[in-house]
Amino acid sequence: MSTKNSRRKILLVTLEPVSSTMAGPAIRCLELAKQLSSEFEVELASPVTVSAEKQLPGEYPCGDSTIKIFTGLGRSALYSRAMENDILVIQSNVLKPFPRLSELGKYLVVDLYDPYLFAVLVQYKDDPVAGSSSYRMMHAVLEKHMLSADFSMCASEIQRDYWLGRYCALGRIDNAMYDFDPSMRKLIDVVPFGLQEKPIERTGDGKAIRNRRYGIGDDEKIMIWGGGIWDWFDPLTVIRAVERVKDRLPMLRLYFMGWKSPNPKVEVMGMAHRARQLATETGLIDKFVFFEEDWIPYEERVNYLLDADIAVSAHFDLPETRYSFRTRILDYLWAGLPVLSTGGDPLSEEIDREGAGMAMPYEDPDAWAEALVKLCDEDGLSKRFSEGALSLSEKYRWSRTSLALVNYCREPYHLPGFQRPTMPNLAERVRAVYSRGGTDLIVKRSKEIVSDLFK
Predict the structure, then answer these.
(1) Tell me, what CATH number does 140's domain have?
(2) 449, 433 in Cβ contact below 8 A?
(3) Is 302 found in the same domain as 180?
(4) Together in a domain, 70 and 157
């Protein structure tokens, strides 16, 4: 580690609460901060005020180093923190309330791991006015982030293909960018969500679901749904599958870890209400299907995972699915849980391919029911999937997944300047034609070139 790197200062910014109860964006910020803290001076900031009982230490311990955590920051305070740092790492909605972060002359990293425009389409599908307004606003916000970034990162290679397409459409990929880096890895690279280095182990008193929640004891087989119930997820298919197998598998319990987001600005989504309504209508609620009201504290989630026997995630056939990276599924792998997940996204397909679980068809409760029976009845299948999950989890340790970001922070750079593409003028057209075929080609193309000028 060089002396120069040890003095470099990095500020990570999220709009999510940074507290004992966190959703994916805040978790990602904190874990990336941990990886950077061994080489750099690192701060983590959020504008969301956190109650005293949920606050993380302001000097957050991380091995031999610490991370400074600031919450409840307004514009002036956040800009002041930014001015004290060399590199800003922001998520792709931060410039909306804090636009000046892109104007401070700092090295700017934008995290594009969440292709949220696809989620906006789903979330507001029943409200055309709000949907159109939200989509157009967030489209503009996203464009500002992409054009301001010196380096951007996403969660998978298939996501990177999507973002490269967007960058190309914006004109950000041009001759100057190609000369700077033909691979475009300096423009955008892959930083997947990750897992902690240590094997999973219980925390605190180790108690979570069994013999503590809803009368679920040691004999029940717990099927866990980690994280929230968002509109682009499909818990209904899983609930219907439980209804189909409840007589054959009377000890099966479906447990949803999250009901409402820890972010007070995020309302309970329609799908969460629909899931609870379906569980009530089918008579499964609080008998076979259970919903945790509060968000599980981040450090305590391991106890819930280790109480489970099966892990599930289900979603719809949407672009959001194809370009998603289901972060909670990584926790399933860390816990060595057999995974049943709707296919269509890269991680679910990898789980199926690597023998860590099964990729299920869309909206097919009969197929899910059959898989549940097979997983519970077939000798050795659950154990094989569990071993596959643990093996696959090694690929996603934060120390590996964060490398592209760490490498950028070791040797940061500014990208070439951006100019929006415009039609070439007559002199530029003639020069381009001449470079390809000399005078003969100019004569041959002259009519076309002149005709284009008068269109």
Answers:
(1) 3.40.50.2000
(2) yes
(3) no
(4) yes
At 2, is the pLDDT very low, low, confident or very high (cuts 50, 70, 90)? very low
Structure tokens at 87: 């590199």
Provide the residue count of the chain.
Answer: 455
Same domain assignment for residues 145 and 256: no
pLDDT one-digit tens code per residue, 302-314: 999 999 999 999 9
Distances (CA, A) of 40 to 1, 27, 51, 240, 333: 10, 19, 29, 50, 30
> What is the spatial order of strands in the sheet that 41-45 belongs to?
59-62, 65-70, 41-45, 9-13, 87-91, 107-111, 151-154, 188-190
- Paired with 295 in beta bridges are none
pTM: 0.89
Instruction: Please indicate, yes or no, whether residues 102 and 28 belong to a single structural domain of this protein.
Output: yes
For residue 24, is it within any domain? Answer: yes
Q: What is the pLDDT of residues 180-208, one digit of tens each?
A: 999 999 999 999 999 998 999 998 888 89
Please give the DSSP secondary-structure letter assigned to residue 415: P
The answer to whether position 254 is within a domain reads yes
On the question of pLDDT at 448 being above 80, the answer is no
pLDDT, tens digit, for every residue of 346-392?
899 999 999 999 999 999 999 999 999 999 988 799 999 999 999 99
- Alpha-carbon distance of 53 to 50, in angstroms, equals 8
Q: Tell me the CA distances in angstroms from 353 to 107, 162, 339, 350, one per residue in order.
A: 39, 23, 12, 5
Residue at token pair 């991380």 = 62
**Separation CA 403–CA 380 (nearest Å):** 36
CA distance 75 to 101: 10
Joined together, the tokens standing for residue 396 give: 């996603």
Query: Are residue 160 and residue 281 in the same domain, yes or no?
Result: no
Q: Which amino acid, one-letter code, is at 443? A: V
> Looking at the structure, do residues 163 and 54 belong to the same domain, yes or no?
yes
